[in-house]
Design brief:
- By secondary structure, the protein is α+β, with helices and mostly antiparallel strands.
- The protein has three domains: about 180 residues, de novo design (two linked rop proteins); about 90 residues, Helix Hairpins (Orthogonal Bundle); about 160 residues, Histidine kinase-like ATPase, C-terminal domain (Heat Shock Protein 90, 2-Layer Sandwich), CATH 3.30.565.10.
- Helix content is about 70%, strand content about 10%.
- The chain contains ten helices and seven strands.
- The strands form two sheets. It has a five-stranded mixed β-sheet with strand order 2-4-5-7-6, with helices on one face. Strands 1-3 form a two-stranded antiparallel ribbon.
- Helix 1 packs antiparallel against helix 5, helix 2 runs antiparallel to helix 4 and helix 4 packs antiparallel against helix 5.
- The radius of gyration is 53 Å and the shape is rod-shaped.
């Protein structure tokens, strides 16, 4: 069932419950109003009955015949009032009580007629007269008291019904809302997990049963997208492999061509001018060949490091110590390059799990690049600090050099890409990138032409429980 339909059903249930409670409340209210109406009528009747009793006493005290006539008129008037409000009275006290009230009133009227025709001083008739008047008055008072009590009972009952109904509606709404929200949250968490997995490159489907609602459609769409992305990733990886082979081949050819051409030219000159060359010139040419050979060896060594990095020997280390050692290695180069070095090393940083020598290699490479970028001197700053809410440690290498043009920045970690012309192999940053990735870290660069460049390396903090999870270089 769709979530929309579930929400509609829950709302319909709550509305139905409210309507039902409202119906019972209206019923009780109508009954209460009817009884209140009778109480008002009963008050008028009791007032009339009281006047009847007064007329009755006047007759007995003063033997005034007009008092009987007045009493008869009051009885007739009361009977008419009852007939006019017979429906309200019947609903309030019931037909049986209404019939008894009329019976008492008729009997009282009959006694009045008997008193008129009897001789004065007939004690039996007078006693009956008093008894019927008293019975009528007592019955009326009893019915009135009962109806007043009934009104109070209805009010108390309605109050309880409304109180418990209110909490029943609230609890029902909470339970239904909790059920629906939990279902929505479960689906959202599953979608979030899948989206996070996709962002990390894991294109696995959600294998759990797909709900038959809107979230089921979303999960199905994400599964379809995940499968498509996996297919595209395979195609992209294959394409990148082919492109990498082409770049690698072209790069190797380009890098090796220059020193080989130089060796060939030197060898030709050596053969052609051998007889006229002095011993010193011959030695100079051999030294140049040796230099070009060393250059080829460096290219091949960097290429091997790039294609098959050495196995990392990971240890718990203080990153500040690693930074300090890297600066010591480069101190002489920094001194003769007119580069001012500043450090801002964070205190109390968590340790990291690294190969100290490999990270020194990365930092030395970044420092060398920074020195080359500051041909006429400048300021080099190395800073360490916590990152990502204390879950990582950052190392910043900041220079005030010429900067990297924006169009080059996305490619600086590509193999054989270099901004130094013939002076660089284009493998240093690629090798550094691979080392950092094998340490489960990240490296990124920000640069502004004419202002400088900042390289930021970020390592996860050391956690002994996760040592086995660290991906070692193979």
């Amino acid at each position: 069932m769709k979530i929309e339909n579930k929400i509609i059903m829950s709302n319909a249930f709550n509305i139905g419950l409210i309507v039902l409670i409202g119906f019972f409340a209206m019923q009780n209210l109508n009954l209460m109003l009817t009884k209140l109406r009778f109480v008002e009528i009963a008050d008028d009747l009791n007032a009339s009955f009281l006047e009847m009793r007064l007329s009755e006493k006047n007759y007995f005290l003063y033997h005034d015949e007009s008092a009987l006539l007045d009493l008869k008129e009051k009885i007739d008037s009361t009977m008419k009032s009852i007939d006019l409000a017979v429906k309200d009275i019947s609903r309030a006290i019931g037909q049986e009580n209404l019939d008894q009230l009329k019976s008492h009133l008729n009997q009282y009227s009959e006694v009045v007629d008997e008193v008129k025709t009897s001789r004065l001083g007939d004690t039996q008739i007078e006693a009956k007269f008093r008894t019927k008047g008293k019975s009528l008055r007592e019955f009326s008072n009893t019915i009135t008291k009962l109806e007043r009590k009934g009104v109070n009972d209805i009010i108390a009952k309605s109050k309880n019904i409304l109180f418990y109904s209110f909490w029943a509606i609230v609890l029902t709404a909470i339970v239904v809302s909790h059920f629906i929200s939990q279902k929505i949250l479960r689906s959202l968490r599953e979608i979030q997990r899948l989206a996070k997995s996709i962002s990390q490159g894991n294109f696995n489907k959600i294998e759990a049963s797909t709900p038959a609602d809107e979230f089921g459609s979303v999960i199905t769409a994400i599964n379809s997208m995940s499968e498509e992305l996996r297919n595209r990733e395979e195609e992209l990886i294959q394409s990148k492999k082919l492109a990498s082979i082409g770049i690698l081949t072209a790069g190797v050819a380009h890098e090796l061509t220059n020193p080989l051409n130089n060796i060939s030219m030197i060898a030709q000159n050596y053969q052609e001018f051998y007889d006229v060359l002095s011993e010193g010139n011959r030695l100079d040419l051999m030294k140049k060949i040796e230099g070009e050979t060393e250059r080829i060896e460096e290219i091949v060594r960097n290429l091997l490091d790039f294609s098959k990095p050495k196995e990392a020997k990971l240890e718990e280390r203080d990153i500040n110590e690693t930074v300090g050692k890297s600066l010591e290695i480069m101190q002489n180069t920094l001194d003769i390059s007119n580069v001012e070095v500043t450090t801002e090393l964070g205190q109390g940083l968590h340790h990291v799990y690294i190969d100290d020598h490999q990270i020194q290699q990365v930092l030395v490479n970044l420092i060398v690049n920074a020195v080359h970028a500051m041909e006429h001197g400048g300021v080099l700053k190395l800073a360490t600090k916590p990152g990502d809410k204390g879950r990582t440690v950052k190392v910043d290498v900041i220079d005030t050099g010429k900067g990297i043009p924006p169009e080059f920045l996305p490619h600086i970690f590509d193999p054989f890409f270099s901004t130094k012309g013939v002076g660089g192999t284009g493998l240093g940053l690629s090798v550094s990138y691979g080392i950092i990735k094998n340490h489960k870290g990240t490296i990124k660069a920000e640069s502004t032409v004419g202002v400088g460049t900042t390289f930021t390396i970020e390592f996860p903090v050391y956690n002994k429980d996760r040592e086995e999870d660290v991906v070692r270089n193979a």
